[in-house]
Design goal:
Number of domains of chain A: 2
CATH architecture of the largest domain in chain A: 3-Layer(aba) Sandwich
Helix content of chain A: 10-25%
Largest interface: A-B, 42 and 42 residues
Order of helices and strands of chain A: EEEHEEEEHEHEHEHEHEHEHEHE
Oligomer: homodimer
Largest sheet of chain A: 7 strands, mixed
Distance between the termini of chain A: 15 Å
Structural class of chain A: alpha/beta
CATH superfamily of the largest domain in chain A: NAD(P)-binding Rossmann-like Domain
Shape of chain A: globular
Strand content of chain A: 15-25%
CATH topology of the largest domain in chain A: Rossmann fold
Chain lengths: 339, 339
């Protein structure tokens, strides 16, 4: 093979916000597949906020990336060589194949992808982990009903755009929250949310106007001042889907109470019979992938599901793009095209 | 009838902790039942923390008691006169009959009580609203499993003692938290909890020893420094049953975020996939009363359910007893015997 395997390694654990120097590029020979293994040429890499947790060795739900190890991440690509009867060269596949151009992986850890249904990169977003996250969180916790008011933070992001559109398809009134006029216009005009509020403006005043009767479901991606504005507005029997709190990933990664900023007084949870529940999609989400994919493809066909990708070209740009993701600089699902 | 109807009225809304002057005694003629109504002579009155909310006109899940109105509360007693075919003089009944000696009530609002199964007053505690609260909260939210660690705050109180014993009967390891050595000894030695921690001591040190591997279910009755100590100790997939937060009822009654002290950072809810859920027993609990009562009577017969009542004699002592309840001065389920 003429190409080397370009990789992005974790060089050191970030102090606060990650910087370029926390990553390191490496070039290594392309590996060969052993028995039952497949060599994959990654075409797109998904960048997602959870990766900040993997860079830290604070206790969390998954093991951290080793220092000097390849950064973890989902990719889509095609099979180059296979020593497994289930895969043949040219097959399109998805898997947790890391920030690298090539990888050798056990066949059982790959999922075949049908690119006649949607683009290859869509399998990292609307049909991938972020979309699955949105669907699982609404199925299991949010349970939006027709006529209810659903608020989605980080509404133009990979998870938020799907969560809002699923809720909308179920007949809910859906209010997005995003940063800046361009994202808000996209969420309202392109994705079809009922409104989208700019959290850089006076969020309380905007919520007063758009949610005068309160909020039934809040999809939490961000924490911080957005959570502060939304939490007191729950209606009785409201549900708070705890998907993430990106605003504190750099200040209190994987935080227990120690060092993390205080949260809301929990009294309203009793009085309003709220349910505040966290989930991690990898616990059981992939076991329901077929059902999820069928729902998504149905919404695509009916025209109820649109999405935006923010495609950055070149694996060597992944660290900078990821650093920007944690600051909200991406616009849509962030993917790296690995040339 | 030779007796008058002694009543306790709400004279003014408390500022902070209620004081004797917020209440007023009244004597009125005993009323007569109209068509479909029953005259009840109340024998025991239940005093419960939720009543603090009814004294306030802050927005809450139930309407406040009117100024000058009879304080609300559950009672047990017997039928004196009836103009309804379903009840006859001498019948033992329970109902929401207020802080008063007599009341006339629509027959449909009374529940007949079988005193051969348990004492009359037990129907205000272990077989009444507090017991039902414990059972519903564990059925719907706590769901303790064999081998799990369950922590119950206000463990010697009306709800806590039942919640802990139900969890114990289901095979969980149950740790109580109570105020002072006498209550802790009672919870451990009489109720059979595995341990009971004194929240007046160093709760963190005691939790380190008794719950070294963390907590699966926390029954929240109190808030404040107890919540602070327990919250960071949840294990993955932990459940927090939000029954009440008595430590702030006098400082932030019916509080929204406004004026209430901050709570824990919510990050661990995501990372540990916690469920934090509130409930009010009156929403649907009474519809399941028969099932609950059967479970409780079963536990009584098998010797797995014990309970303690704190009986104060004389309706005129109800205000003082209630003021003490909010300070944790009662020991066991607080009831007033109305002589």
């Amino acid at each position: 093979m003429s190409e080397n395997n370009l990789q992005v390694l974790l060089k050191r654990r970030p102090q606060g916000a990650p910087v370029q120097e926390d990553f390191e590029m490496a070039e290594r020979p392309v590996p060969l597949p052993g028995r039952g293994q497949v060599l994959v040429r990654n075409r797109f890499l998904s960048l997602d906020p959870y990766m900040r947790g993997r860079m830290s060795d604070a206790k969390s739900y998954a093991k951290p990336v080793d220092l000097g190890g390849v950064m973890e991440g989902a990719t889509v690509g095609e099979v180059v060589a296979s020593d497994d009867p289930g895969f043949a060269p040219g097959d399109s596949v998805m898997g947790g194949n890391g920030w690298q151009r090539y990888c050798v992986v056990d066949a059982g850890r790959l999922r075949r992808v049908d690119t006649s249904e949607a683009s290859l990169s869509a399998n990292l977003g609307v049909l991938g982990m972020p979309g699955l996250t949105a669907w699982v969180g609404l199925e299991d916790i949010g349970e939006p009903k027709a006529g209810e008011t659903v608020v989605v933070s980080a509404a133009s992001g990979a998870v938020g755009q799907v969560a809002g559109q699923i809720a909308k398809a179920r007949g809910a009134r859906v209010i997005g929250i995003a940063g800046g006029a361009a994202k808000c216009a996209f969420v309202k005009d392109e994705l079809g949310f009922d409104a989208c509020l700019d959290h850089r403006g006076d969020l309380n005043a905007q919520l007063d106007v758009t949610c005068p009767d309160g909020i039934d479901v809040y999809w939490e991606n961000v924490g911080g001042h957005v959570q502060e504005a939304v939490f007191p507005r729950f209606r009785d029997f409201g549900r708070m889907v705890m998907c993430g709190m990106i605003s504190q990933y750099n200040t209190a990664p994987g935080a227990d109470a120690t060092g993390a900023p205080p949260g809301p007084n929990l009294g309203p949870i009793v009085r309003k019979r709220l349910r505040v529940q966290g989930f991690i999609v990898s616990d059981s989400g992939w076991q329901r992938y077929a059902q999820f994919r069928a729902v998504m493809l149905g919404l695509m066909k009916s025209g109820e599901l649109r999405w935006k990708e923010d495609v950055v070209i070149g694996l060597e740009k992944a660290p900078k793009a990821f650093i920007g993701l944690l600051k909200g600089e991406n616009f849509g699902k962030l993917v790296i095209r690995i040339d």
